[in-house]
Design goal:
Chain C: It holds the Pfam family SBP_bac_11. The complex is a heterotrimer of chains A (284), B (275) and C (343). Chain A has 284 residues and is mainly alpha-helical. Chain A has helices spanning 2-17, 21-50, 54-63, 65-98, 104-116, 119-130, 137-142, 151-162, 165-177, 180-187, 192-221, 224-230, 240-249, 253-283. Chain A is globular, with a radius of gyration of 24 Å. The mean pLDDT of chain A is 88. Chain C is α/β, with parallel strands linked by helices and 343 residues long. Chain C has helices spanning 2-30, 45-63, 76-84, 97-105, 119-122, 163-179, 184-196, 205-213, 225-235, 259-265, 268-276, 281-289, 297-302, 320-329, 334-340; strands at 35-41, 68-74, 91-93, 125-126, 129-134, 154-155, 198-200, 220-224, 240-243, 247-249, 255-257, 293-294, 311-313. The radius of gyration of chain C is 23 Å and the shape is globular. The chains are: A mainly alpha (284), B mainly alpha (275), C alpha/beta (343). Chains in contact: A-B, A-C, B-C. The interface between A and B is large, with 108 and 106 residues.
Chain lengths: 284, 275, 343
Amino acid sequence: MSAVIQTKNNTKQQAALHDPTWVRTGLIAIALGFIVLFLCLPLGLVLFEAFSKGWTAYWSALTQPDTQAALKLTLLTALVTVPLNTVFGIAAAWAITRFEFKGKSLLTTLIDLPFSVSPVISGVIFVLLFGAQGVFGEWLMAHDVKIIFATPGIILATLFVTFPFVARQLIPLMQEMGNEEEEAALSLGASGWKTFFQITLPNIKWALLYGVLLCNARAMGEFGAVSVVSGHIRGMTNTLPLHVEVSYNDYDVVGAFAGASILAGLAIVTLVLKSLLEWKQSDR
Amino acid sequence: MSQSNIMPGFKPALGFTVVYLSLVVLIPLSTLVFNSFQLSWDDYVAIITHKRVLASFRVSFMAALIAAAIASFFGVVVAWVLVRYTFAGKRFFHALIDLPFALPTAVAGIVLATIFQPSGFLGKLLMDTVGVQVAFKPLGIVVALIFISIPFVVRTVEPVLLEFDTSMEEAAASMGASRVQIFSKIIFPNIFPAILTGFALSFARGVGEYGSVIFIAGNIPYVSEVVPLLIVTKLEQYDMEGATAIALSMLVVSFLLLFVINLLQLWARKRSGQL
Amino acid sequence: MNTNIWFNQLRVLAHMALTVMGLMLITNTALAERTLLNVSYDPTRELYKEYNPLFIQHWKAKTGETVAIQQSHGGAGKQARAVLDGLEADVVTLALAYDIDQLYNKARLIPENWQSLLPNNSSPYTSTIVFVVRKGNPKQIKDWIDLTKDGVSVVTPNPKTSGGARWNYLAAWSYALKHNNNSEAAAKDFIGKLYKNAAVLDTGARGSTTSFVEREIGDVLITWENEAYLVLNEFGADKYEVVTPSFSILAEPPVAVIDKVVKKNGNQDIASDYLAYLYSKEAQEIIAKNHYRPTDKDIAAKYEKQFPNLELVTIAQLGGWNDAQKKHFADDGVFDQIYDQGK
C-alpha cells in the first residue's frame, strides 16, 4: 500500500519537474517559429539574393577590388578593437567583481552606456572631437594628422560601439563565481598573474571567448557610427557594411548581398565553432 | 564585505578601467554636453519640447517599448527551449541568435523591408489575411527593433537558466509543488532580473536605432519619424546645437534607465542572496 | 595543457594582425601617385564612373602623369557636412548650390564668388524633375496637379535630408504658384495635398527609387530626369514609364574646387582641369548619354530628341537658395507646416 503511494508521489514529483509534452512541443514550436520568422528568413533572403545570379556573379562581386579593400579595412578594424576591448573587459570585470568600492554601480552603468547611445550619435561625438570644426580640429590640421574620414576614426567609433561586449559577458559570471578559489591560490603563495592565468582564466574562458566573438561580430558589422566618420571614399574608407550600402545604392544587388553574406557567414561560422568546442569540452 | 585584502591588482585594474572608459566613452560623450552648453536653457527647452520632436520621442519610445516587450517574451521562450530541451538542429538555431549583432543594421533594414513590404513574402500574407501593412508604417519600426533586440534578451536570460540550480526545483517538487507553481514561484523570480536587464538593453538600444529603422519606417513626420532621424535632419541643416540638444536628452534618458535597471538588479541579487 | 592552447591561439591571432597591418602599409605606399577626391551626391555614381577614366586618359595625354581619382557618394547635405568636418575633397560636385555655399559660409573653404568661376553658374550639366510611373500609367498621371488627387500615392524623398527632394518640392511649388495667380496660400494648400499623398519619405533620392521599384510602393516617383531614365535602364522599360510634366524646374547641380584642400595637397592643377574638362565635347557626350542635360550647344543639339522641351523655372526666379531654404525647409518653414497642421 505505502509502496503504491510512494510511486504515485514519485510520478507526481517527476511531472512537476518536467514540462508536459504539449507544453514542450508548444514552446519549441513558438521558439522555432519565432527564430525562423525573424532570423532564418532574413538570413535566407541574404543568401538567396547573393546567389540570385549564380556562383560566378557572387564570386566576382567578392573579388572586386573595392570589396577586397572594404574587407581588409573591416578585418583591420576588428583586429585592433577586439583585443583592446578584451583587455579592458577583463580589467573592468576584475575590478568590479573582486573589490568593493564607491561608485561601483555608476561605473557598471557607464560601461553599459555605449549600448544605448544611438549609433548616429556615436559617430557624431568623434566628429565633434576630431572634425575640422571640432575641439582638436585645428591642431590636427596643423600637424596633418587624419583621424576622421580615415582609418583611426573608423577604429575609434568601432571601439566605442563594441566597448561593453566583453565586460558585459564577464561581470555577471565572475560575480556568480565568487573568489574563493583565487583566494586559496593566493594564500598558498601563487603570484597574482599566476592565479589569474591558472585559476581565473580557465574558469571564465567560455564567457570570455563568447564576449570576444560577439565583440568581433559587432565590430565587423557596425554601420551607423562608422558611416558618420567614414567619408565613404571607395576603396579607401568604406568598411564592408558601408560597401554593402554603397553597392545596394548602385543597384548592384548581388554585390550588396554578397558582402552581407560574408558578414552573416563569419558570425555563424564562429558561433557554430564555439558551440562545437563547448560540446567537446563538456564530453570530456 | 571585507574580502579583497588578499586579492591583487585593484589599483591597476580599476585605474585602467577608468582611464580607458574615459578615453573611449566619457570624453567623446562629454562633447555632446559642451556643445549643448552653447544653447541657452530656454533655447534648449524650446528645441526638445517642439511638438515635432516630442512626437518623434513618442514614436521612438513607444516602438522601443512594444518591441522590447515582445522580444522579451519570445526571448525567454527561446532561451528556455534552447537550455532545457533537446531537438534536431538546436546547435544551428543557437548560433543564429547572434545574427542581429553581426548583420549590419542597414542590411537588416533592407532585408526586413523586402520581407514585410506589401508585395513581400510576409507582407503580402499579412495584408491578405489580416489586412495589416507592416513596412512603411509604425509597425515596421517595431519589427525592425524586435530583430535588433533578440540577442540582448536571449543572451542575458540564457546564462542564468544554465546556472540555475535544478535542486531547488527538485526540493519544491518533493514538497508537492505543481509544475506551474514551480515555474511561477521559483524559476520565474530567479530569471526575472535577467529578463529585466534584457528588456532594458533592448529598449535602450531600440530608442537609438537608426540604420535598420529608416529603411522600413516610412519616415512620415508625426507618424513614423524616429528621434535619430530628427537628429540626422538637424545635422543636414548644419544645426549642430539642435542635434546635440536632442541627442543629449536621449542620452540622459538612456543613462537613467540603465542606472535604475542596475540598481534593480543589485536589489534582486541581494534579495535572492538572503533567501 | 589548456593554457598552452590559449597561448597558441593568441600567437596565431597576433601573427594575423601583423600580416594584415603589413598589407595595409604596402597598399598605402603603392598609392604614391597623385590622387584626386571627388565628393559627390547620390545619382552621379554612373556619370563619374564613366567620366573619371576619360579624364585620367586626358590628363595623361596632356601631362604624361597618371592620376587616380577617388569617389565618395552620399546625400548632398551629408557630403557637404563631411567636407566641412575635414573630409579632404579636392572637388565637390553636389546637387545644389546651397550646400556648396555652406563651405564658404561656415569654413571659408572656397571663395565667396565660387559660382562665377566656371561657366553656366558652375554647372557643367543641368537636369530637371520628372515623374516615373508604372507601365501603362494606370493612375493617368500627366502633370503636377494629378499628384494631389485622392488615391494617388507619391514617392519622394524628404526635402530636409535630400538635395534632390528640394528641387522636387520647389518644382511643385512653382507650378502651383503659376496656376494660382501666384497665390502663396493656394500653393501651400497644393503642396500640402501633394505631401499628404506621400507614402514614404526616404532620406535620399536613391532610397526613394528603391521604395518605388523594389518595394513596389506608390503610383508615381518624383525624381531627377537622369535618375528616371536610369530606372528604365536598370529595371526595365517594360515596367516603368517616364512622364515629363508641362512645367518643372531647371536643376543646376554645381561643381567647385575646394581651394583650401587643393593648396594643401598640391592638386590645384588637376582639380581645376578636372572640372574644366567636364565642359569639353567628349565629357558633354558622356553627360548626355547619362541623361543629364548638356550645356554645350552642339552636344545639346545632337541629343535634342532625348530631352523634351518644357517650361523651366530657375532657382534665381524663386529668389535664390538662401531665401528658398529659409522659407521652405528650415525648421517651422512651409514644409514643416504641412505636417504641423492639425497636430
